[in-house]
Amino acid sequence: MTQDLSPFLLRIAEALERLAPPASPTPDFSGARLFRHDAGRGLFIAAPDYPLPLDALLGVDRQKEVLSANLSRFAAGLPCNHVLLWGVRGAGKSSMAKAAFMACARDREDLKLIEVDRDEITALPRLFDILRERPERFIVLCDDLSFEDGAEAAKALKSALEGGVSGPPSTVLFLATSNRRHLMPRGHVEDRGRIAAAEDAEEEVSVSDRFGLWIGFPPMDQPTYLAAVRAYARRYGLPVRGLDRRALQWAQARGGRSGRVAWQFILDLAGSKGIALPV
Questions:
Q1: In the prediction, which pLDDT does 116 show?
Q2: Facing residues of 113 across strands?
Q3: End-to-end CA distance of the chain
Q4: Positive or negative, the Cα torsion across 109, 115, 116, 118?
Q5: pLDDT digit string (tens) for 100-117?
């Protein structure tokens, strides 16, 4: 007599279904403009609007103009480039990326920013596949991007931006900040032979070449640093007597001049005067 195996097979199917990972929820981008992508859980976590206005970033007018123009073209569906903001630490690269996005998204409900961790760059192709099906336009931001351990993440980024079968969707612009123009550390080259070193150098350039627009942030000279300090002081109604001398002493104690150092000096000055700043 043939035994009916249907109940047994049904139990197996139900057990396998319980073991299978749950399907990722359909992302909802309606409640915010900024999100953080959790690749491990497949989630998009809403974040509050970035509060710093773009015009509060001083001493980087050319960089603001170039980045804002590229983002505006992207938002309008016009040809544009993926962007690498590179240069010295504290120059305002990360702040500019988010502030320029907020300025561009002010009147565009469909424009969103998704921040990804640099340790999850290998998940970019999957993220792009998710965003490909969406009606919104996305700026995907990776702050402080570099490839300390080499090839796997670099190859994933190259494939995601250019060279893979599908490539990024037309509704996604990738924006990265880095202290290095070529993203990869040079120390791993020094102990190798000439041929291997040349191959590594080619690999370094091929990663950054995926960005059509490089925007550099050079070290801030003294006149620009003082101009930034004075402009911040005027903006927030802070006392200016002896300002230059104190600002230079602050920079000397910090070991350098930058937009971040200028802002930290202003925070200290405002705090010492009991003045609350709006941002």
A1: 94
A2: 34, 139
A3: 80
A4: positive
A5: 999 999 989 999 999 999
